[in-house]
Amino acid sequence: MGIPMCFGILLGLSIIFDGYMENIFIIAATIVIYTYFVYYKNNYKKFLFGILISFFAVNISVIFFVKDDIDPNITDIGDAQEETLVLLLYDGEERNYNLSERTNEIYFEQKYKSYINVLYNLYKYKGYYESLGSSDFKDTANEISVGLREKLGNKYKVVNSYMYTKPYFENILKEVISLGYKDIVLCPMFITEGKDFEVFKSRLQEMELSKYGINVELTDVFYKSNNLAKSYKNEILGNIENKDLDAGVLLIGLEDENNLEQDIIFREKIKYYIEKEKNTKIQIKLPLLENNKNDIIKSGEQLLEFGIDVLHVVIPTCTIDNMYNKNLVESILQELDTSEVRFHYIDPKDKVKILVEEIYTQISLIKK
């Protein structure tokens, strides 16, 4: 049993590590499996059982020893600052695959389920980076903070923070409170009050900021934003160069990630603005990501049956596209690919500017 378990542990580690560590674990696992089948009795039932036990052990070990520890307790409060601290909060991801940070995301989103499936989910995350390269998430977040800083002026300090990558928002809050910031505007950078928003609220409540005399104001999420919806509309219509072309639009929702009611409201808003242009040749569907993309693929195939010339794939479910969304788009386009139809993935070029304006307006109303 010892050798099968050793092989299972090495195999499990090889699928979640990347770079030279992945290669080391693969080589070690190969040596172990070779030794087992050459020098020991081939008991396949015992071998498979050992692998299952080791995978379960690795799952638990990753949660306990790899996941970053985030301490929500505040230990130091500085002298009061006159500036208002504006904290932009994102889900977040690192430029390159980061094992501990991605483990944090899986744990916070899935809680006890993560003890069973963290290996599988980490393997998927690693695959996103291998197929798509590096993430520009933080670059875009910095563009937003720079734009907002310029609009707000000297009375405000603007800082980025994240839920699933460093700097974690709890650590940033503890740092700014120790510097004396007691007037804080927290801006959750989500389209809807979905899974990430709920995780954020739970983690924020654990900090118990009110008992330290910290005034925290929350801005709204963005599903109500007419300007953001119009931005998607403008980008879609701008990609239809020839108005005589028959065009299709897939406005995709993420039921598991987002608040479904708010998700639908935002996508319907985009659809309304497109149809308001009175271009009757645009066919629009609002599928949800469920059943392994079946609803999306079915909706896309239905649009293709209309004989459309161009299909726009739109996922208006987050403020900044992450590796998960980008991988989803790639897989959808591959399954719908046909030489007769052109495909466009839509993410508004002016989204950063729109988000800055929306946050600025909300903060201005709060501080009136």
Please give the structural blueprint:
Blueprint: H1 2-16, H2 19-39, H3 44-65, E1 84-90, H4 99-110, H5 114-132, H6 137-152, E2 156-162, H7 169-178, E3 183-188, H8 195-207, E4 215-218, H9 226-239, E5 247-251, H10 260-276, E6 282-285, H11 294-305, E7 310-314, H12 323-336, E8 342-346, H13 351-366
Helix pairs in contact: 1-2, 1-3, 1-5, 3-5, 4-5, 5-12, 6-13, 9-10, 9-13
Shape category:
flat
- Rounded to an integer, what's the Rg over CA atoms? 24 Å
Which percent bin holds the helix content? 40-55%
Q: What is the strand tally? A: 8
Helix tally?
Answer: 13
N-to-C order of helices and strands: HHHEHHHEHEHEHEHEHEHEH
How is the main sheet built?
4 strands, parallel
The CA-CA distance between the termini, in Å, is 69 Å
Q: Which stretches of 5+ consecutive residues score pLDDT under 50?
A: none
Strand order of the largest sheet: 2-1-3-4
Mean pLDDT: 87
Percent of sequence in beta strands:
5-15%
Structural class: alpha/beta
Transmembrane segments: 20-40, 47-66
Keywords: Lyase, Membrane, Metal-binding, Transmembrane, Transmembrane helix
Organism: Paraclostridium tenue
Pfam families: CbiX
